[in-house]
Amino acid sequence: MLEYYTVKRVVNRIAASNPATVPAARNDFDRATITEYSIQSIKSSDLVISKDGNDKVVIEFAWDKEIDLFGPVYLEIKYRGKSD
User: Fold this and answer.
1) How many of the other CB atoms lie within 10 Å of CB of 38?
2) Which end of the chain has less Cβ packing within 10 Å, N or C?
3) Distance between CA atoms of 44 and 56, rounded to whole angstroms?
4) DSSP class of residue 41?
5) Residue pair 34/40 in contact by the 8 Å Cβ criterion
6) What pLDDT digit, counting tens, does each position of 25-72 carry?
7) Which residues sit opposite 49 in a β-bridge?
């Protein structure tokens, strides 16, 4: 959960800065992952970056995490979110 909230905070910060291009937004995310050590499960290429009707940048993200419980039993957690 810590990683999810860190990604959410970074994505909100990037979207609020209204980057001019998609590569600029991805570069901002890559720079953030250098200092935010808890971001391990997602890369900038996994982000879906678009603009809404008001020309505001919207960044969506998603990843799955699988945890071994015992024997053939696993717990799968699906993380999904987008900028505010």
Assistant:
1) 12
2) N
3) 19
4) S
5) no
6) 999 999 999 999 999 999 999 999 999 888 899 999 999 999 999 999
7) 59
Helix, strand or coil, per DSSP, at residue 75:
strand
The amino acid present at 1, given as its one-letter code, is: M
For residue 4, what are its two tokens?
A: 């999810």
Give the residue carrying structure tokens 């799955």: 64
CA 40 to CA 20: how far, in whole Å?
A: 26
Q: What is the DSSP string of 24-54?
A: HHHHHHHHHHHH-TT--S--GGG-EEEE-TT
User: 57 and 18 in contact (C-beta within 8 Å)?
Assistant: yes
Rounded CA separation 36/17 (Å): 18
